Amino acid sequence: IVAGAGLTALNAGFYAFLLRVRGPRFTLAAVPWHWVYYACAGVGFSIGAAQEVLGWPATALPVEAAREDVP
Fold first, then answer.
1. Predicted confidence (pLDDT) per residue in 35-47, tens digit
2. Which residues, in sequence order, are CB contacts of 44 under 8 Å at separation 6+?
3. Per-residue pLDDT tens for 9-53?
4. Neighbouring C-beta atoms of residue 18, cutoff 10 Å
5. Is 40 exposed, middle or buried (CB count within 10 Å of its CB: 0-12, 13-18, 19+)?
6. Which of 5, 9, 37, 62 makes a 20 to 30 Å CA pair with 56?
7. Which residue stretches of the chain are H helix?
Protein backbone atom coordinates (compact mmCIF):
# COMPACT_ATOMS: atom_id res chain seq x y z
CA ILE A 1 0.00 0.00 0.00
CA VAL A 2 2.83 2.38 0.86
CA ALA A 3 4.66 1.56 -2.38
CA GLY A 4 1.49 2.14 -4.39
CA ALA A 5 0.92 5.48 -2.70
CA GLY A 6 4.53 6.48 -3.32
CA LEU A 7 4.38 5.45 -6.96
CA THR A 8 1.16 7.40 -7.40
CA ALA A 9 2.65 10.46 -5.71
CA LEU A 10 5.77 10.33 -7.87
CA ASN A 11 3.64 10.14 -11.02
CA ALA A 12 0.99 12.65 -9.96
CA GLY A 13 1.94 15.06 -12.73
CA PHE A 14 1.62 12.37 -15.39
CA TYR A 15 -1.72 11.20 -14.01
CA ALA A 16 -2.96 14.79 -13.91
CA PHE A 17 -1.98 15.11 -17.57
CA LEU A 18 -3.91 11.95 -18.45
CA LEU A 19 -6.90 13.20 -16.50
CA ARG A 20 -6.84 16.56 -18.26
CA VAL A 21 -6.35 15.17 -21.77
CA ARG A 22 -8.31 11.88 -21.72
CA GLY A 23 -10.63 12.06 -18.72
CA PRO A 24 -11.19 10.09 -15.52
CA ARG A 25 -12.17 6.72 -17.02
CA PHE A 26 -9.05 6.56 -19.15
CA THR A 27 -6.84 7.65 -16.26
CA LEU A 28 -8.28 5.03 -13.89
CA ALA A 29 -7.73 2.37 -16.58
CA ALA A 30 -4.20 3.58 -17.37
CA VAL A 31 -2.83 3.62 -13.81
CA PRO A 32 -2.68 -0.19 -13.37
CA TRP A 33 -1.07 -0.58 -16.81
CA HIS A 34 1.48 2.05 -15.88
CA TRP A 35 2.31 0.01 -12.78
CA VAL A 36 2.64 -3.14 -14.92
CA TYR A 37 5.10 -1.20 -17.09
CA TYR A 38 7.19 -0.38 -14.00
CA ALA A 39 7.02 -4.00 -12.81
CA CYS A 40 8.23 -5.30 -16.20
CA ALA A 41 11.05 -2.76 -16.25
CA GLY A 42 12.05 -3.79 -12.72
CA VAL A 43 12.08 -7.47 -13.62
CA GLY A 44 14.14 -6.80 -16.74
CA PHE A 45 16.62 -4.70 -14.81
CA SER A 46 16.89 -7.36 -12.09
CA ILE A 47 17.57 -10.10 -14.64
CA GLY A 48 20.15 -7.98 -16.44
CA ALA A 49 21.88 -6.99 -13.21
CA ALA A 50 21.97 -10.60 -12.02
CA GLN A 51 23.48 -11.73 -15.32
CA GLU A 52 26.14 -9.05 -15.10
CA VAL A 53 27.02 -9.86 -11.48
CA LEU A 54 27.09 -13.61 -12.12
CA GLY A 55 29.15 -13.18 -15.29
CA TRP A 56 26.64 -14.91 -17.57
CA PRO A 57 27.22 -14.14 -21.24
CA ALA A 58 24.68 -12.15 -23.17
CA THR A 59 22.50 -14.24 -25.48
CA ALA A 60 22.17 -11.56 -28.17
CA LEU A 61 24.83 -10.91 -30.78
CA PRO A 62 26.68 -7.60 -30.68
CA VAL A 63 25.46 -5.12 -33.27
CA GLU A 64 28.60 -5.49 -35.41
CA ALA A 65 28.28 -9.30 -35.56
CA ALA A 66 24.61 -9.09 -36.43
CA ARG A 67 25.31 -6.77 -39.35
CA GLU A 68 27.90 -9.06 -40.98
CA ASP A 69 25.12 -11.08 -42.64
CA VAL A 70 23.37 -8.00 -44.07
CA PRO A 71 24.47 -7.16 -47.64
1. 999 999 999 999 9
2. none
3. 999 999 999 999 999 999 999 999 999 999 999 999 999 999 999
4. 19
5. exposed
6. 37
7. 2-10, 12-22, 24-54, 63-67
